[in-house]
């Protein structure tokens, strides 16, 4: 039923967008059509038309309520599942941290002094070796990093630099994006004011078409990724410009183009500060910010948030147990 039910969504969305009075005006138009062009109101038994409308309303009201409840239930289950996973990970981390460490053996003052002297001597030797190894590793990583950056720059050299809205300014239109949505601005170079009926805008799940009737489309082709048709829209601004709003299905990725025939932008140069993270819900925003932080840390050769958390736990444990020798311990 899903495909048949969505069959006329594109046409109905266009109709809805042309009704400035909203749903009330749209419903009135439907009944006006039935009154003027059909025998809907007088063709059946008394009350049959009213019963039909009531039955349809009750059915779709029930479906809408069930869908809403199902969505809420799914969100609650996902939250519970995430909380369980987080608790499990925390428990595993705690067990790992509290694993049996070296046993404490009581020593005489002479033995302790001798052991400390040996440990200090070994520690100095290991520090010398570690410094030499670190310098060599840094030099090697620097060389590899330069080669890697060179390859990446070569690969991305033909891509466009994103505009201030993380999209692109193309010859016939421009577009911007956030993690959750895309907006296109399509100007028309005409001498007259355009009306809604002059415009062709067809928004599908995987394709888009924008243009004037009787003229070649300005935008036409397969979209970079899928969009929610029911949450996408368009409007005519000042009789000269069509603004199209697309709602992304995958809200965790940047688009490098609108349609497959467009030139690509370099998504590595996108500025997250311009992407309206404040518009996302708390949980998604937290995930995105963590992902961005970890990406920056890795690019600078620094620990990610998880690695930093482990190091902090280790430092705290070492501070609480100064009698233990960690000089030869290796931690990952």
Give an overview in words.
The protein has 332 residues and is α+β, with helices and mostly antiparallel strands. It is 48% helix and 12% strand. The chain has 7 helices and 8 strands; from the N terminus they run H-H-H-H-H-E-E-E-E-E-E-E-E-H-H. It has helices spanning 2-5, 9-17, 23-37, 48-97, 109-156, 282-299, 305-320; strands spanning 168-169, 174-177, 181-187, 199-203, 207-212, 219-222, 233-237, 241-247. The strands form 2 sheets. A 5-stranded antiparallel beta sheet has the order 1-2-3-8-7. A 3-stranded antiparallel beta sheet has the order 4-5-6. The radius of gyration is 32 Å and the shape is elongated. It starts with a helix and ends in a 12-residue tail after the last helix.
Question: How is this fold's topology laid out?
Answer:
Layout lengths: L1 H4 L3 H9 L5 H15 L10 H50 L11 H48 L11 E2 L4 E4 L3 E7 L11 E5 L3 E6 L6 E4 L10 E5 L3 E7 L34 H18 L5 H16 L12
Antiparallel strand pairs: 1-2, 2-3, 3-8, 4-5, 5-6, 7-8
